[in-house]
Write a structure and sequence with these properties.
10 strands, about 0% helix
Length: about 120
Amino acid sequence: QVQLVESGGGLAQPGGSLRLSCLTSGFTFSGYDMGWYRQGPRKTREFVATITTTGGSANYADSVKGRFTISRDNVRNTMYLQMNSLKPEDTAVYYCNRRLSNNGAFPWGQGTQVTVSS
């Protein structure tokens, strides 16, 4: 049974940093491109970043490029999102999943809330 458990969110000031973690189980983590997604207040879920199976390549939404860094540890079956220079518009619930495609998605986890406010 696939499980995705996001953690590391919280309250940060503008310009601050947070590091999110996604602990996975129930599938062969190293065999999947993975991604971070977020859903802000009154918004639909949107793409944040994706990373290839080996971590050798990543893609980012224009809104986070240069500020966020996605990474993964295939031994610990865990993915990370380092978020720097946070902005109020980064406020959202952050979710991890496989890279979304026509093959669908794993069941979504509970997400982790990130709030950026002074």
